[in-house]
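Q: Structure tokens for this one, please.
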Amino acid sequence: MGSPQEPAEPVQRFIADAMLGRLARWLRILGYDTAYEKTITDKALVERAVQDQRRLLTRDRRLAIRKLLRGRHTLIISDHLDEQLRQLRDELHLPLDLWMDRGYRCAVCNQRLVVIPREEAISKVSPLVAEQHHRFMQCRCCGRVYWPGMHWANIMRQLTQLAKELPVPQGGGAGIPR
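A: Here is the predicted structure, written as tokens:
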């Protein structure tokens, strides 16, 4: 069990194929460790999924039937993000919430974010953002700085709407509180 600064890794770790970049980004926002490389070959994708013990998310039926995956894959049916998230919640009982026991992850490079002091963030964000916000996190890998702004509010609104449309999974799976 991890401390608040270093949460325990989630059980589900994913790798998404080239057709699922938007889904990969959203899974990262939700705190799930989700590898994604737009230009990786199918062979390398399967090898990495096996080596890193990740569940492969793919839209490619031929890729999903590879023997090496041994059931550790999900064939994503829809092109639409909300339906893709619905499928993962229904099939994998994946919580679609922002409870941060999973930790925050960089939407770009998938690394954990760390809280940084406002004083440190001021030089890395616009003056308007520095003036309006007081909580900041940074990806130590790519340097990207995050703060709870309008984008965060839009994400919350979209997840809340999605939660209203989704049935609560059997077995008491966690989701966004209503």
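A few notes: The first strand starts at residue 13 and ends at 16. Confidence is low (pLDDT under 50) at residues 1-10, 168-178.
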